[in-house]
Structures are given as structure tokens and as C-alpha cells.
């Protein structure tokens, strides 16, 4: 079924439920604002692209999606692939790859590809998620410690670690204090007030300390200049046959990540609200959202598990919450863009370090290593290592192929009756 959940839930809405969705939307927007900025910066893009993605893609995912409470936008899972595409093909190449991924997802929605998530082995998903979290953490350590790396330092782990070691003399104690302060505040506020949007409060407090005490710490404005106060006009990227072929692998990876993460998020949301999402409508919505985001110069987008959970805890129960969330971010962008320039870079790095830690789900590490089949553990570790040391495309390709082969072998499929040809 491709019918958006909004059309199903809207006739049942009451003034009370709409107000509850509005409050949830405001709460999620306060969480999404600093995250969207930090994700864009970590991806190698301009910070405003994160806001554009949260506004445009977040609106379209809620408008057309198959989940009652899904919140869409830029996520940490895309940082690695986005950074790689920008480094290799430029930002215009990323825009075209995102547009292609959106078209692939739209086709997938009509072909009912949302039902295929069950075929992706769980160890592969866990492996590349932990690997991506490790890469995010590694990429944020320089900003969190105030390091100055040489321009053009690669994101590859094997080359970045030696570069960080060589730059150890540039470490700033003030930056470390601000980064640690943000981490401590985020964790403390989350535990003390789990329904409160503590992310923006924590980042705001330590950034205010930087301004009040004139600390020698890099800020958003100092590095990127002023943020725009409006959305850009839609624009098509440069499209040629050669570029389409060149960017197809990246587009497939973006489509795969968007589809997998959105459906995983929708399944988590189902358990929280005792609902049932429409997977093919969700895939279609992800496609439309990525097309819309790319045309507006944004980043790839998908359903965000943490923001979706925040929405549910804040009382959101229909897609209106996601639409309100996008509207609030747009309002903040239009009215308070200059204030974002005071945000401290180590604080945003600390935010992403917490995000990476949560993304890796450390509470499950023991279970990964002690339960289940040995082959599943090997598959998880292999996918994780390939993600960190090789390439996300290779990691997913090898992981899925091996996972499906293991699944077939466990079904006791007899070998084919094959006779070598007589040459």
C-alpha cells in the first residue's frame, strides 16, 4: 500500500491531538537543529545544507511517508558516503547522486522493494553501523580537541590517524574543555530530563561560555561565515550520461542506506506506538524526499531513529508532528540564523561523538560477541573492519553477499547437479 499515513490519520485528528503533535514537533526541531548543522559539517558540506535537508526532506517524509511518527532528515549514517562523494566528485556530484538515489527509491517503492528488508542480514547492518560510528568519532576528534590538521587531510582512517598524531602539538585545552563540557551536559540532561531537548541546551550553554569568556575556540561563524536566512531556489545539477554512470555506485549506496535506516526506524517506532508502518509508502517517501532535498541543494536524507524516538516520547502521534518540526526549523533559519554563528565547533563535535557512541549501541556489544552463530560474529566484524579500513560500498557488497550465502547454506539447499562440460 502506497497511501501516506497522513491521509489515514488526518480525519481522526482533534484540536488536542494537533496541539500534542505541535509540541512534539517543536521539541524534535530543537534536537534536529544542532544535529543537522553538525552532520553537514562532518560530511564536508556547508552547515546550511543540513538545515535545508531537515526542512525539505523532513517535510516530504512526513507528508508522504508510511509511518505515523517517523522524523526524517540528515543522519550520521550518511556522513561517510557523503564525505567520500564530495571529496571525489564535488558537492554538485553529491547533489546528482542524491537525485539518482531518490529516483531509485521511488521506483523501489512502486516495485514494493520495502518488503525486501528482511533479506539483509542483521550482522551486516550492525557491522557497518558500528564501523560508521567509529569513522564519525575519528573525524570529530580534531574539532573536539582544537587540532589544526593540514588542508586536504584524507578522511581515510589509516591516513587520518598519523596526521592527527603529527598535529598533536596544536591541541587546545580550551577546545577540549568545551567539547567535554558539551558531552557531559548532553548525557546529564538526557538522563535527568529524557523528554527535554537537551542537545540544543547543552550546545548553547557551552557556546555561550565561549562568547562570554572570549575563549580561543573556533565557532561556526568563524569557520563558515553567516548562515543564510532563507531556502535556496530549486536547481538541477549538471546531468550527463558519463556522470550518471560515474555516480551510479554512490547513488545505489545512498538509496540502500536511506531505505534500510528508514525502515529500521519505522519498525522501532511501531514498537513504541503499537502501530504498523507501510514499508513501500515509506520507501516512496524517502525517494521523494531525496529528490526534493537534492533539487534544493541539500544532503541525502532518511528516517532518523533518535529523532523519531524523541518525537514519540514528546507526544507525537501523527505525521503532523514531522511537518511541524520542519516548519519550526524553517522559522528558526529565517529569524535566528545569525545566532547560530556563535555555536562552538568543539561543542558540535562533542554532540557528534555522543551520537556516534549511541549509534554503535554499546549495550549490545557483549551479545554480539557471545550469542548466536560464530559465522554471524565473523560477518559482523568483517563488515565493520571493511567499513573503517576499506570502503562502505565494498563493506556492504561483501557483507550482503556473504550473509545471503550463509542463509542459503543454513537452509540445507542441496548442491546443483552440475557436470563439467566436455571440452
TrEMBL record:
Domain of life assignment: Bacteria
GO cellular component: a single term: membrane
Chief localization: membrane
InterPro entries reported for this sequence: SLC26A/SulP_dom, SLC26A/SulP_fam
One record GO biological process: transmembrane transport
Keyword line: Membrane, Transmembrane, Transmembrane helix
Boundaries of every SLC26A/SulP transporter domain copy: 20-365
Pfam families (UniProt xref): Sulfate_transp
The keyword Transmembrane helix is annotated on this UniProt entry: yes
Record has Transmembrane helix as a keyword: yes
Membrane topology, from the record: Multi-pass membrane protein
Chain segments annotated as transmembrane: 20-42, 49-71, 91-111, 123-141, 170-189, 196-217, 247-269, 327-358, 378-406
Subcellular location: Membrane
UniProt name for this protein: SulP family sulfate permease
